[in-house]
Amino acid sequence: MGDLRSVAGKLLSCGLCLWSGLVVWAGDVSLPRSSPESQGVSSRMVLEFVQAADRQVHSMHSFMLVRNGHVVAEAWWAPESADKPHVLWSLSKSFTATAVGLAVAEGKLSIDDRVSSFFPDSLPPEPSKNLQEMRVRDLLTMTAGHQDEPALGRETDWIRAFLAHPVPHKPGTHFRYNTPATFMQSAIVQKVTGQSVVQYLQPRLFGPLGIEAPRWDTNPQGISLGGYGLYLKTEDVARFGLLYLQRGQWNGQQLIPEDWVRLATSRQTSNGSRPDSDWDQGYGFQFWRCRHNAYRGDGKDGQFCVVLPEHNAVVILTANTGDMQGQLNVVWEHLLPAFHDQPLALDAQNEGKLREFCGSLQAKR
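User: That's the sequence. What structure does it adopt?
Assistant: Structure tokens below.
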């Protein structure tokens, strides 16, 4: 817990338009735009990626590539558009974990606090030893101890239903992807701050990043769903990914403690051993580890915020697909070879083709 304690001391106050050349940051119109080659990215390879995604992913909704802090390519498949918020599904989880990290930094809780300590009046009459030992850390790492996900949807009191669910495994020892565990993080943040997660994040995250009017659905008790229910625009998600790529810094401010970014995006628990699966590379605090030393937040049907520290890049994808691994495979096959360490020579021909093809997607359907 030593490095987490240091988090508190490190928190400071806290259509289609390609390559317009504007250099504007949070609170202004958009992220800076730049040509791919000026940021060391091959327009030809990006074009091959967008074409492959269009052919192979059914169906793509949007794509944005950020390199060196600049948007170098972006596309929306009709009827989606740049100004239309998109459902994030479980990509919402990474935002909820960020709220937990900020609450830790402000001294409102510790990740080693017992979950039961926040809701003593909602515990079953004889809580099991495993339930009593479940920590916030276990919620974050999807190791709460459940064999099956608690079914909360039809309940009126989700907190009580979660705490009543059997906990057969010792918390911290058994990975089980568990959306209700993320809801409980949201409930804990609301308990210790007096604000819903979306309210709590507004001045600390959404506002500084220039994310306007985020929508986050709530449960019958008025608690943000946490594990899903957040709607943001593609560029909003890009800002979030860029913030994590920059280790929590934004416009000279440390919005998220660097220690929290490191812990949240590193491997905290094992979740499999298949080397060819992006779902078996380890799990952090509501972030997945990926192949190619990357990490991501992701959501059902192909919502991705992929951060590539070795390439100083962020890839945002939204979609409605049943093959999320196939969607990531297109990224690895076509985008990874596009990155170069130095700016590239102008490639007006392929840049123009990329611009034209991306523009055509708006009229394709």
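The first strand starts at residue 60 and ends at 67.
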